[in-house]
Amino acid sequence: MKKSIYINPTGATTGKSLVVLGLIEHFLRTGQKVGVFRPIIKTKPGKEMDVDLELFINNFKINIDYEDSYGFTIDQLQELESQGNHDEIIDKIIQKFKALEDRFDIVLIEGSDFESKNSVYEFNLNLEIAKNLGSPVIIVGKGYEDVSIEEQAYTIYQNVDNFLSHGCQVIKVIVNLVPDSIAEQLRNELLAHLPPDLSSVDLIPCDKGLSSPTIHEIANALNAEILYGENQLNRLAYYYTIAAMQPHNYLQRIKENSLIITPGDRGDIVMTTLQAHQSSNYPSLAGIILSAGYDLEDAYYKLLEGLKDIVPIISVKTNTFETAQAVANVRSYITSKNEGKISLALQVFEKHVNIPQLMERFEITPPSSVITPKMFEYSLFKKAKSNIKRIVLPESDDERILKAAEILTSRELVKIILLGNPDQIQKNLDRMGIMLDLSRIEIIEPLLYPKYSDYVISLCEKRKHKGVNTDMAKDLLSDFTYFATMMVLMGDADGMVSGAVNTTQHTIRPALQIVKTKPGFSVVSSVFFMCLEDRVLVYGDCAVNPNPTAEQLAEIALASAQTAESFGLNPKVAMLSYSSGSSGKGEEVEKVRIATKIAKSKNPVLKIEGPIQYDAAVDMGVGQKKMPDSEVAGKANVLIFPDLNTGNNTYKAVQRETGAIAIGPVLQGLNKPVNDLSRGCTVTDIVNTVVITAIQAQDENQ
Fold this sequence. Notes:
The protein is an alpha/beta fold.
């Protein structure tokens, strides 16, 4: 049975996109195929995408054409209404929604923005659409510090009453952006008037990180010219301050992440502001706006051009007061390009919304027969959180590493260790606008580490058969990858992830030399977790062994099955070749046939089939025709390639042509977990690889 939820705001700027984000994340985790739909958007056809739809579609990679994700623009709506074609509006919205309903398990519908002059019309239209679509409704309100509790509560429960009286089912009330000072009073006032079955009201507190605009948003809203700091436009402006007085007076008024507004002819304030930003005695600042269209004097421009990584400085034509008013009216959005805000929004939703109670009201039972990428990711995150491990990241100069560290830390998935100089790392964070709290991670400078001498001695001992002496050991440990690997060996870190900057060989060589293979393993191999739309497959070996022998191939198959089982998959192993069963002949087919026999002899209970072709392994129809008696054919989820050439090309082809997420390579066979990244990896790739490394570390300790 198809389902939908209508997320309806009580007015403008309620932050409803946070609620939709959280719901998409939840339903994807529970195996649902999720679509999104907005009946009415502001953006004109042919222009940029609607901000919220772009966020949902791009962030979650929802397979939907933009034109199919909305009903009408506000201009189209007004034109049809002026022509008396109201029924046409409803008919087309239903038609477009039903098309999505046929494609997705659940469609989340986000109501209009309430930014037109006729809010009563918008409310009635939202109500009518929700009723005609048969969608249960979540009411999203907003908290205010300067509006009476009674008035705020009245707006919310009047919305609820109106939907209920028109035959709609209201399943939840969520109030967003609630100041802490009014939370308890607002909750009590709502509970006194809402129906008994809505007795659990979720209040989401106001979060500066979510509600504050970026400098980029401010610059766009003010049509400003960007003079400096173009690479830091994602910095958040928590406050704004007009600086027109003497510097020694205004410095006492600035707060953390303030945006300084000053006339363009006040070069003295600009220079003082930049000095204050760099000083440990003053808060970090978001940026500077030069108002009134004045240009700084040439001497100041010359000085600025000689500075590196300064905060954004933008220029506007309006006077200082008008500029401040415009800044105060800038609306902050969660956008698909701001990974930090997305991560924070999901964290806030998960913490403050009672999902089990909401799902009970929604009466949805998630399917359990498939493992989607989001279900897999959820299981990984849940397992990682169950026993927090310490993962060392030696490439702290890379922006993607720092962004991943921010997400991993904010979601409390692992304990991050960064190698490098703390001051330089903080400068990099400031320059990149990344909100990583360094107090929540560990930063180590290798040469100053208290155990450095122990590492030198241990490395000499490990490599003495290769003639490594003290000086050579010190030289090796000056390489952060070697040092990080030694941390894992010595138990000061539970795992290491590298390769965003360094090559695979540079990452793996220290592990092979120092950590070495587990007892019973002759080779180190790898797998990729291939996250397709409706399932997760394990591909091995696609990264390490060019042309394994039959014995090595059997070992890779057994290791890959064990890895799959460790991550919640029930392994069904296909030993791939260019023929299925006993039909084919040739040296390569024979190698796979022998490898299958060896693997079966070592693990008789493992479901394994080979040789078998890829289509027979994964397609039920083909598998039943070619190998009707097989327990694996058509059901395989662990696919072992006969050589690196085949495996590497196949995983990349599947990744590119299907849009699958490839997590890996995940190394197997080492005594301690060390994993490699692709130099083209994304922030998401790093997060997933670190989490997998942490889970491997958990298994090592069992």
